[in-house]
């Protein structure tokens, strides 16, 4: 099993954004020591509970502190940027950290209307995202009308399965990252493998499975660890932001006090999409997930209020890797 980590720089109540970013960097250093294959960071603009808006900048800091682990953008949201700038930043990272960079691309717009207006893209028209992805690939490969610098070998491109990314990845011959509801869509996953067109950079399909994971002594304790993120997800549908993670005990109290069935269902749905349990349970679940989806790699999101619990789950996931 190949396991990598996605760190969204989730803040905790009582913690500053700067402290969160520093913790992400330190976690990446530890991930390399534990032998993880990749460490990816994400892009979220003006979201109070997520401290990182610029994955390439954060990866530059992480790359300076590490030596071998692959560094990935999970992902750069293409509608928010000029394709030329995306290509330039990817090549600059590759020049700094040769052979270690993954360019993960997604097609999501900003989380709320004010954020979309601030970013200058409020609507994504049909065909825009695929066209921009192709522009990025042309810049990276030297097939555009201008020569992008620095002149280095381009990093591999991965697509996130949003805005038709799964279908587009098959058409372009690119690796893909799936998560959330897509994990349960067997027909779409099968179509990726069936319709995949080999490309010079990816002769065969490659699927990474992104899933939230918690490991503890018991399944009950592991599910408790997921509650802060599940509550933040459900809450975001009402308040339009991912708030900082709260302690498990506080979330339990909030769950007990709410009478909003819609929010409680959102918590349950989020929990059902995650993997939580004792070590053997989680290992079996991940093995089954990779077998069911045809995935080659787990991209784990480990997020709970207690950072010691995050470290323990990281250590266990690292132990599952095979050479």
How many strands appear in the DSSP assignment?
A: 9
What share of the residues lie within helices? 40-55%
The CATH superfamily bears the name: Luciferase-like domain
What number of domains? Answer: 1
Alpha-carbon Rg, integer = 19 Å
* Estimated share of beta-strand residues: 5-15%
Largest sheet: 8 strands, parallel, barrel
Written as H for each helix and E for each strand, in order along the chain, the element string is EHEHEHEHHEHEHEHHHEHEH
Poorly predicted sequence stretches spanning 5 or more consecutive residues: none
Give the second-level CATH assignment, the architecture.
Alpha-Beta Barrel
Q: How far do the termini sit from each other?
A: 8 Å
Descriptive report:
This protein is of the alpha/beta class and 323 residues long. The protein has a single domain, classed as Luciferase-like domain (TIM Barrel), CATH 3.20.20.30. Helices cover 48% and strands 15% of the residues. It contains twelve helices and nine strands. An eight-stranded parallel barrel has the order 1-2-3-4-5-6-7-9, surrounded by seven helices. The longest helix is centred in the last third of the chain and has 21 residues, at 219-239. The protein starts with a strand and ends with a helix.
Provide the descriptors you would attach to this structure in a database record.
323 residues; single chain; globular; alpha/beta; TIM Barrel
Offer a quick outline of the entry.
By secondary structure, this protein is of the alpha/beta class. The chain has helices at 17-34, 55-65, 83-96, 113-119, 128-141, 165-172, 186-195, 219-239, 248-257, 261-273, 279-293, 307-319, and strands spanning 3-7, 38-41, 70-77, 101-106, 157-160, 176-179, 207-215, 275-277, 297-301. α3 (83-96) links the parallel β3 (70-77) and β4 (101-106).
